[in-house]
Specification:
Elements lengths: L12 H4 L4 H34 L4 E9 L10 H7 L9 H8 L2 H11 L3 E5 L6 E3 L5 E5 L11 E7 L6 E6 L2 E6 L3 E4 L2 E7 L12 E5 L2 H11 E4 L7 E8 L2 H59 L9 H32 L17 H21 L7 H44 L6 H35 L5 E9 L8 H26 L6 H5 L6 E6 L16 H16 L7 E6 L6 H14 L4 E5 L7 H4 L7 H6 L9 E3 L6 E4 L8 H5 L2 H10 L5 E5 L8 H5 L5 E7 L8 H10 L5 E11 L2 E4 L29
Parallel strand pairs: 14-21, 15-19, 15-20, 16-18, 16-19, 20-21
Antiparallel strand pairs: 1-12, 1-13, 2-3, 2-10, 4-9, 5-6, 5-10, 6-7, 8-9, 11-12, 17-18, 21-22
Helix pairs in contact: 2-12, 5-6, 5-7, 7-11, 8-10, 8-11, 9-10, 14-15
């Protein structure tokens, strides 16, 4: 045999992968997937438009208000005017007011006022369409109560064909008949259906669906759609934004929310004024009664003592005592007010009432405590609008009120003690001057005492009367601590859904989805699907690639065959000649990791390729566990095992012609032995291989899978090179490590990989197995059927 110096053509990763391989792979993916990309893009864009057609558009409705904020010097000076009158209207903070706008209580009131919990729908082909102003009727409960807060009902309203004013209302398998304007006695309470704006233009045959949602759920929904922002902390402007499908409806909701907020603010101020006026009226009655009694005493004293004028003798002393008397009177008035407030706070009847702030003394600490008490009291009143007195939140507020009330009483005690000390000191000084008028008649002294008491009561009465007038003026001119800057106004175009964005999103998803599926399939694929999978796992070179056998015939290489597989086997034959340059290098072992990878197919067609080149070839069927070559070639099952178990050394009588080519002969396996491994280790077998080299140009040995039994390793000492078959799309990646291990430990000689069953689609390197035959081993191989070789493919 001629000794070639040329190296075999080994398919390495470098031939397939270069600097631009990644981009070439992407382009090849596009070329393969472009029909699916088009279908995916069309479907995704169609789905996006389908979604847009069924998605209700949402509009942004905006409004803004200016809140009087004492911390920022708001532009409304009403509070300053009332403070000058001695009244406290409470200080607002823009952050607190923003939180009030988000309160559940306000939104529930808006839902109730605008009946936002009642929705009207027109049945459609795919979904019902909500109508707002176009509804022909207005449905309402006559006496909605707390039970409606969690009520959920659905009604179907059908009009009489002959009379639009007559209808039938269906609910829970019950039918209610009536006319518009009638009162219907429903299970959840009396209700009324009255004509609306679109009544006259409504199509009689078109039914109307009426959906009643829970009030608290609707309040929570609209609160979730509402955003309250204070973009500039330097000013006290609050911006309100609401998302709603109907702009007019959103404007009504936002304007209604502002209206309810302003009304609640004004009502809080009026409640403080009412409480103050009630307290003043009570004190006026008491002081008037006391003043009347003193005046009657003076009248009786004058009548009894016949006094018409005061003696001028004490004029100078009276002037000296006048100043101290006036100061004493002022202190006693203040003491009386303090005692009145103390009685008010100690009376449990007044626990739920605010403290009359107009009667508060000029003590800054006391004024602060009173203001805090009134704010907490108002907060409790607002909670009681939606909560019970036994609610934990209300009980917590009650605890706060009790603590603040104790602070007030403690402060009043301190003030009272101070006033009592001041009065005592003034009284001592007054008595000193009075001691100097010992010569003044006793009657005059009694008259002076009456006059002093009368002056005290008169001053207190005038003080209370003045405060009552001031409080009445304040109540009649009460204004909210905010004003509207911009009323609610909806945008002219919806902000959601964005049609162009949805279309582009659908286009991008449709464009990327096939790639994602393809790359995902590659990522999770645990089988050999590309040449680089092998290159990344082993150093063993790839000698050849054999394509997919579409004809499903066992013999793919014939004299007349021009199929790509035949050419690939011819290329394998050429490379094999480079691998076996020596004259004694003749034996080729064909093995794999498991069954079904195409060893028999590879062995038969390699022998055919060598035979067609004029080489005398022997195929040894040494798969002594599940031989299939004999069956594939329709040969007798006798040969190797018969030869080894006898003492006859004449191996020629067991050689059979293949029937496919005259240069192609077969040494069949023979009967299945019980001990194949031991049989292969006999010295007779080694001698047989040496002798066969003298008679044949090439010897191809078909062995069991190396990954399952040791037969291939035993035969490794007899052969010159090893072709390890890897089937793409079938061989697991982890099995490549077995090849690498055998290669590194040199258990098999000159190991080279042959990739079998390569399927090449457009621009995509894919592999599969399509021979239509296979075989199984008792130690785990699959069963299969073998398609027989057609006679016209055999070369005689």
């Amino acid at each position: 045999m001629q000794n070639y110096q040329r190296e075999p053509v080994i398919i390495q990763e470098s031939e397939v992968e270069g600097n631009g391989f990644f981009f070439e792979k992407i382009i090849s993916k596009v070329l393969v997937l472009w029909p699916w990309i088009i279908v995916s893009v069309v479907c995704c864009v169609a789905l996006s438009y389908f979604y847009l057609s069924f998605s209700a558009p949402e509009y942004r409705i905006r409004a803004s208000i200016l809140v009087q904020d004492e911390q920022k010097g708001g532009g409304i000076n009403e509070a300053e005017m009332l403070e000058d009158l001695g009244l406290s209207m409470g200080k607002s903070n823009v952050d607190n007011e923003a939180e009030i706008f988000k309160s559940r209580t306000l939104m529930e009131q808006v839902v109730m006022d605008l009946q936002l919990y009642i929705h009207y729908y027109v049945p459609g082909k795919l979904k019902a369409k909500e109508v707002f102003k176009e509804s022909p009727v207005k449905f309402s409960y006559i006496h909605p109560g707390r039970n409606h807060y969690s009520l959920s009902k659905q009604y179907k309203l059908v009009f009489e064909p002959s009379d639009l004013s007559r209808f039938q209302l269906y609910c829970d398998n019950k039918v209610y008949k009536g006319r518009t304007g009638d009162t219907l006695q429903l299970e959840e309470g009396p209700a009324m259906i009255s004509p609306a704006e679109g009544f006259s233009s409504w199509k009689v045959e078109q039914p109307l669906l009426i959906l009643v949602a829970p009030i608290d759920a609707m309040a929570q929904y609209y609160n979730g759609s509402l955003s309250v922002n204070i973009p500039n902390k330097e000013v006290s402007v609050i911006y309100l934004t609401l998302n709603e499908s109907f702009p007019k409806k959103g404007e009504e909701i936002l304007n209604g929310l502002i209206r309810v907020y302003l009304e609640a603010n004004v009502n809080d101020k009026k409640r403080i004024a009412d409480s103050t006026m009630d307290f003043i009226d009570e004190r006026l009655k008491l002081v008037l009664s006391e003043l009347t009694g003193i005046e009657k005493d003076i009248e009786g004293f004058k009548t009894e003592n016949r006094i018409t004028d005061i003696d001028q003798q004490s004029h100078l002393l009276l002037e000296n005592t006048s100043e101290y008397s006036r100061q004493q009177t002022t202190s006693e008035v203040q003491l009386s007010v303090v005692k009145s407030l103390e009685e008010f706070l100690k009376d449990n009847v007044n626990n739920s009432r605010v403290v009359p702030s107009s009667l508060v003394m000029q003590d800054p600490n006391f004024v602060t405590i009173v203001q805090r008490y009134n704010d907490v009291q108002l907060q409790r009143d607002r909670m009681l609008m939606s909560l019970t007195p036994s609610h934990p939140s209300v009980l917590s507020i009650d605890g706060q009120l009790k603590n603040i009330r104790l602070e007030l009483l403690s402060s009043i005690g301190s003030i009272k003690r101070g006033l009592e000390v001041s009065i005592s000191e003034l009284r001592k000084r007054t008595m000193g001057f009075e001691g100097q008028i010992t010569k003044v008649p006793a009657k005059q002294r009694v008259f002076l005492d009456f006059s002093r008491q009368q002056a005290i009561k008169q001053e207190l009465y005038l003080f209370l009367l003045k405060k009552r007038e001031e409080t009445a003026i304040s109540k009649s001119s009460t204004l909210a601590n905010a004003r509207i800057i911009d009323p609610a106004k909806g945008d002219s175009s919806p902000f959601k859904p964005k049609k162009m964005l949805m279309a582009m999103t659908g286009f991008m998803i449709g464009l990327l989805l096939p790639f994602a599926i393809s790359f995902g399939r590659d990522f999770f694929n645990n089988k050999i699907s590309a040449l680089e999978d092998i290159s990344a796992l082993t150093r063993v070179p790839v000698l050849a690639e054999i394509g997919h056998n579409k004809d499903r015939e066992i013999i793919a290489v014939t004299l007349s065959s021009r199929h790509i597989i035949a050419e690939q086997f011819r290329s394998l034959r050429t490379n094999l000649q480079y691998l076996l340059p020596g004259e004694r290098d003749k034996i080729v072992l064909v093995t794999s990791s498991m069954s079904g990878e195409g060893k028999s197919f590879m062995s038969i067609n390699l022998c055919m390729a060598l035979a067609l080149a004029g080489k005398k070839v022997l195929l040894m069927e040494l798969d002594l566990r599940k031989p299939k070559i004999s069956d594939n070639l329709n040969l007798a099952r006798s040969g190797f095992s018969n030869y080894t178990i006898t003492n006859d050394d004449n191996w020629q009588k067991w050689i059979q012609p293949s029937g496919a080519h005259e240069n192609f002969e077969v040494f069949a396996s023979g009967p299945l032995p019980p001990n194949p491994a031991e049989l292969l280790m006999l010295p007779k077998v080694e001698a047989l291989f040496k002798e066969l080299k003298n008679f044949y140009d090439y010897i191809v040995v078909d062995s069991p899978p190396a990954g399952m039994v040791t037969d291939a390793e035993i035969m490794g000492s007899y052969v010159d090179t090893t072709l390890y078959i890897v089937r793409h799309g079938y061989t697991f990646k982890h099995q490549i490590s077995l090849i690498e291990r055998m290669f590194s430990k040199k258990k098999l000689p000159k190991v080279n990989i042959v990739i079998n069953d390569v399927k090449i689609s457009k621009g995509n390197y894919r592999y599969g197995y399509g021979y239509g035959y296979g075989y199984g081993y008792g130690y785990g191989e699959e069963n299969g059927t073998i398609k027989k070789t057609r006679k016209k493919d055999r070369v005689k």
